[in-house]
Amino acid sequence: MVIQATPLASPPDGAPDGWKAVGASLIALMLGYSTFVGITFGLFLRPLSATFGWSRTEISVGFSIASGLMMFLAPIAGMAIDRFGARRIILPAAIALGLVVSSMSLLSDQLVHFYVMYALVAITGMGTLPAGYTHIVVQWFTAKRGLALGVAMSGVGVGAVVMPLLLNYMITHHGWRSAYLMFGALVCCISVPVIILWVREPAKTRQASHHVSNDTNKPSSQPSTPSTQRFFSYILHPEQRRLVVFLFSAFALLGLASGGLLAHLVALFVDQGLLPSQASLLMSLLGVSLIVGRIGFGKLLDRFFAPHLIFLTLLGFAAGIVALLLSTNHYAYAASVVVIGMGLGAEFDFMAYLASRYFSLAAFGAVSGLMYSAFQAGAMVGPLVMGYSYDTSKNYTAGLITLAIGVVIAAIVMLKLGPYREPCAQRAD
User: Fold this and answer.
1) Residue 330 pLDDT exceeds 50
2) Domain 2-426 falls under CATH 3.50.30.10
């Protein structure tokens, strides 16, 4: 069973509408699920604990619930994007996410209420995942695909720069309830209009024609979306199975590290004597590093073999995690954050790029969704590992060591991927 993509006339990499889609994706991702759960969760950890008396492990369960649900929802969203188009999924999801986050300003002291709200964040946020935006970007770009993906995906980095500062100000001066309300309002007032205006795929006459067939010598001239059964037959084919196992295990380990760090990083800094405002500044510095990592490594992906580049990047990421254990002052923490941010920033670029180079573009949304699902499986466990480390020893040492080991293993796995497959025939450069 082969899922084959037969290119028709493709829009040029410099097409204005393509770069508009990239810019709009950047803005929308700044206020999407990844920013809200991945970047801002830690800002609410201590305020919620102080208000309701919940432990850090109990609060971390909310993060894990969202990640666990996303593990199942991401592939569904990816298949829906392949079938119906990304725009039709992204727009209603963004509206729903904004309303749900706004309603979190009404949280009660019942822990189950908090868990239900994070479950709703995952359900509504699945359409705002990076997979939808990268699905659009890879259709607009070929030779400059890595750069375009890096620019678009830097939206989460921009969110990581801006939102910790805004939310910390709101939490400090107006309370955490106002901070939730503000984030939801920004989604509805900024992200939604931008999606309506500029987030769109190329015209159908320019899109690749997708065909699912048992005979690779008989491509179809009509667009076709693979059925669920054919898709799983495709990824479980012996030629693809090894890739799937390696990629999914690697991204699960990266999710473990990312989820654990992002959920507890602010609390870790405050525990070490930093003021909440200083911790927020470090999170913003993390955001700057995310931007640099995503654009920089996105550009490098167009020039160098991705697995080798990823290996070196992840070793640096692991070193940054270890450096947190050795840091003794603000400057050392800042240096660690920069290195960690570069690694975090590159992860989703790598995910989208590898999906487009090792699998057919006809199944890009579904493959990206499954890879993101693996990432979320790890992200579901990471905050619990860090929370348990703190609750049992009053420090994060054991948790950080566990995360660093996971990243090193993921780096080694990336070296086993082998040469590009499907995408080689689709490159224009």
Assistant:
1) yes
2) no
